[in-house]
Design brief:
Helices cover 43% and strands 13% of the residues. By secondary structure, the chain is of the alpha/beta class. α17 crosses α20. It is globular and about 80 Å long.
């Protein structure tokens, strides 16, 4: 099988989202070929280079999202008319024009039912027609990138916002808001101008697999539109939810218009995809909220490599019984402030307890937050000394992976008896799964997919509640037998559900399911005129290398000779005479 893997800001680059699981997937399915189509997010990401590629990666094609590649084509009068018509239709749908619907600024759909499966079919069709119309214009004429950056694009967006029936937040959009939305749309729609959709590009693969939602889905949608290649979408976090979380301070008009675009694009991707997979039930609920058909949804948990944690997991008694451990990226969403206040209450009941905070800051915001947490820890826990001549020692330590004491993540989890997660926002808690693989008892806040992952093998408390967090930690510190039982159950659950092997096996089964149902593009028809499943034999997909030494083999590269030519109707088997 030949798979087109579509990524945005991740694999095959060294840094970025979805890098690890994509790399594991490609290596784990060595019997199949992969063509990687990657969209990069920054020049720095491109300068960092790629991860070592598996031998079954047949081709890698990249395109930058951080830079506009203008083909210097100036649209003629007819092409400009087409552009204005398609962009105007797309903008009218986003603005909630006549017959449209629009999300409120807080993310709750309006009474018209904008983002749910109850949205009018005509609205979905209008968005799809506008999207594919712009793609066909880019394919036929070129010049789409320049047109989207033109004054005409901003004026078209302004007319849609001022049109009768537009949502109030759209009508209140000012010029800076319109410029911001136009810039975002231009960047998001850059894949429409790529030359990836011909028969020698994505048209040559048997299946397109988008590794995330949003812009990464666009190449798959266009490949399906132009060449009929089936599409599969995988999300470990829904882009619309991310938009709401990352743009709380944006002007209402910008936030609402971009939310409408993300919601419409998600609904279009879910509607066109053969299968949509979610990394957890929390993400799956968001997908259903955005219009995904339940019959298409599958839950495939992220796969973790269990071997690095095997030694620690099989030696649960190596932990310090008086140490709590937090492991992760330092950023405000992790709510280390609540953890420090909870630890202050733990120390009142268990004075010998220590807290190790292990992790690096996530960007400039994370660095500032880490400094704030260090200051708070120094205020809450003045340096303590056992005697008048002993040096002071703060019970809270801030460390990073890679030092002499903690060379690996497994060593961080091994250093404590209880692993704590204090987040207020969380998708799939990777650090929690690592602790489970290490056989550690856990105390976590009830956010994201935490309860789904823990499944009764750890303690869960409400977020932003230091007292509840402290009580749960004290309960486990005082009961080593309970810690051991919970740790063993957690490790067994993680090995059953969250390993690389189960992840690869699940995706492989879905690939075969999609290919078995996909219509054959060189159609073989049954008596009713419907495509025959498995009409092309499996041998056609065998990844062998043909040589020119044999003309007969060289001619068979595109398939067996009997499969070439016009559509063929299946014949009805002839029954043997009775008694023969």
């Amino acid at each position: 099988m030949r798979i087109g893997l579509l990524t945005e800001g991740g694999y095959p680059y060294v840094s970025g989202d979805a890098r690890l699981w994509c790399d594991r997937l490609v290596h784990g399915l060595a019997q199949h070929e992969f063509d990687v189509y990657a969209l990069s997010r920054s020049e720095h990401q491109e300068d960092e280079g790629w991860v070592p590629l598996s031998p079954n990666v047949r081709r890698v094609r990249t395109a930058p999202l951080w830079m506009a590649e203008d083909d210097e084509v100036v649209l003629g009068r007819r092409a400009r008319r087409r552009f204005t018509e398609y962009l105007g239709e797309l903008a009218a749908v986003l603005c909630g024009g006549p017959g449209g619907a629009f999300p409120a600024a807080g993310g709750v759909p309006s009474a018209a039912g904008e983002l749910s499966g109850n949205a009018p079919t005509s609205e979905a069709d209008r968005f799809a027609n506008a999207l594919y119309g712009l793609a066909e214009l880019a394919r036929d004429e070129g010049g789409l990138a320049g047109a989207l950056r033109s004054e005409a694009a901003v004026r078209t967006l302004e007319r849609a916002c001022r049109a009768p029936g537009a949502h109030r937040s759209a009508r209140e959009a000012r010029v800076p808001d319109l410029l911001a939305v136009a810039a975002h749309l231009e960047r998001a729609l850059r894949p429409l101008s790529l030359d990836w959709y011909e028969d020698d590009g994505l048209g040559a693969v048997g299946l397109c697999h988008a590794a995330s939602g949003g812009t990464a889905v666009l190449p798959g949608l266009l490949a399906r539109h132009f060449t009929g290649v089936p599409l599969m979408v995988t999300e470990y976090g829904v882009r619309l939810r991310t938009h709401y979380l990352t743009t709380p301070d944006a002007p209402p008009a910008v936030r609402s218009l971009l939310a409408a675009f993300e919601g419409r694009l998600a609904a279009e991707a879910y509607g066109r995809a053969e299968v949509v997979t979610a990394g957890n039930t929390h993400t799956r609920r968001w997908q259903e909220r955005c219009g995904a058909d339940r019959r298409k949804l599958r839950t495939v948990y992220p796969g973790m490599e269990a071997r690095p944690f095997a030694e620690v997991g099989e030696s649960p008694d190596c932990a310090d019984p008086d140490t709590l451990v937090w492991v992760g990226r330092v950023e405000p969403a992790k709510d280390l402030v609540s953890l420090l206040h909870a630890f202050a209450q733990v120390r009142k009941q268990e004075p010998r307890t220590r807290l190790r905070i292990v992790g690096a800051p996530a960007g400039p915001e994370g660095a500032a937050y880490l400094g704030h947490c260090r200051t708070l820890a120094a205020q809450l826990f003045p340096d303590e000394a056992e005697g008048p001549h002993a040096p002071g020692d703060n019970p809270v330590s801030f460390e990073e992976i890679g030092g002499p004491e903690l060379p690996a993540v497994a060593d961080a989890h091994a250093s404590g008896a209880v692993t704590v997660l204090s987040s207020v926002v969380e998708g799939f808690p990777v650090g929690l799964v690592e602790a489970m693989l290490c056989g550690r008892a856990t105390v976590s806040t009830d956010v994201g997919a935490v309860v789904e992952v823990i499944g009764g093998t750890g303690l869960v408390v409400p977020p932003r509640n230091p007292r509840a967090l402290a009580d749960a930690c004290v309960a486990l510190l005082r009961d080593p037998q309970r810690r051991a039982r919970l740790g063993a159950a957690a490790r067994a659950r993680a090995l059953e559900l969250f390993t690389v092997e189960q992840n690869i096996e699940a995706f492989h089964g879905i690939y075969l399911e999609i290919v078995s149902r996909a219509p054959v593009r060189r159609a073989l028809l049954d008596g009713a005129g419907a495509p025959l499943p498995f009409a092309v034999p499996a041998e056609v997909h065998v990844p062998v290398r043909w040589t020119a030494a044999s003309p007969r083999l060289a001619a068979a590269r595109s398939g067996p000779g009997w499969a070439a030519g016009r559509p063929v109707r299946a014949t009805t088997p002839v029954r043997a005479p009775e008694g023969a």
